[in-house]
Amino acid sequence: MARPLAALGVAGVVAVAGCAASDSGDEAASRAPARTAATAASPAPSATASATPGSLVLGNAIRRAPAAYRFARARGARVGLTYERTSYYVYLPPRSPNTKVIVTMHGYLSTAFDDFAHWYPRVASRGYGILAVHWRLGPRSSQSTSPARLYAQMRSALRTARIGVGDALLHAYSSAAYRIYGVAALDRRGSRFFGLNVAAAGGARPFFSPLYREVFGGGYGPRPLLGSRWVLFCGGRDPYPDATGCRAMFRTRGLIRLRGGIVDRFILDPQGNHGSFLNTQRHVDAALEIFARLSPL
């Protein structure tokens, strides 16, 4: 049975808030209503008070996405530093008796708050929880959380919340999707929390996907994705067809199958753009229906 998450290995949790994220790819601008007296009276936690790397990342994210921050707080989400204090997470427990959680990794230019704001209206009626982990630590691509550390952060959170085997859906968008293949492979070697993996507009690419050689080059053995289940998405109008568009995702489908994974659904939206998966309810519903079938209550 799932229980509320106190922290990812740290003491104390802070409530967070904001409003919905934008419709366009990684450019997560907000569509927030006017700031109310109630939200104005609740300032963001200081990112410089404890002077840890994670608190600085958190403070920057709050300044970049204040509306999404307020949205999450208004819905009872919590924010805390990851167990090693290098980043932060946003967490909303599943509504009892549900034990399912959406674990999500944001796009390159957005934040975990934006991803929470995208997912919440999609799953609120189902009672699913949401765990959004922030993996971008700075402006340079090198300032990113590795798949191994990402998985350790997620595993710590899901164990603390007592989420069962197969009861989490892992979603990654755009450049985060480059990393999902390594995280999924580590999960197959570890706790097997993820009943379904959703890679939206981000193919497996040499030199861009961390752990590419380990997962797709034989470093983890011939079938490191054995037993993993997948939904892949591409938009026909994605401006980067060989990296995040349909050619990339078709190629990735073959790689996943070669390494033992099962692609349950390939969603190709001919009129869709780079960010159309989370911005289109029918696409999200298709993935959630597969997840519900694979991981029934």
Keywords:
alpha/beta; Rossmann fold; nine-stranded mixed beta sheet
Q: How would you describe what is shown here?
A:
With 297 residues, the chain is an alpha/beta fold. 32% of the residues lie in helices and 16% in strands. The protein has a 9-stranded mixed β-sheet, with helices on both faces.
Full CATH superfamily name = Alpha/Beta hydrolase fold, catalytic domain
Please indicate the count of domains.
1
Determine the structural class based on helices, strands and strand pairing.
alpha/beta
Portion of residues in beta strands equals 15-25%
| Biggest sheet descriptor | 9 strands, mixed
Name the strands of the widest sheet in spatial order: 1-2-3-5-4-6-7-8-9
* Strand and helix order: EHHHEEEHEHEHEHEHEH
Short summary of the structure?
The chain is an alpha/beta fold and 297 residues long.
SSE order and pairing:
Layout: E1 14-15, H1 37-40, H2 53-64, H3 66-74, E2 78-81, E3 88-92, E4 101-105, H4 112-123, E5 129-133, H5 147-160, E6 168-173, H6 177-189, E7 194-200, H7 212-216, E8 229-235, H8 246-258, E9 262-269, H9 281-294
Parallel strand pairs: 4-5, 4-6, 6-7, 7-8, 8-9
Antiparallel strand pairs: 1-2, 2-3, 3-5
Helix pairs in contact: 3-4, 5-6
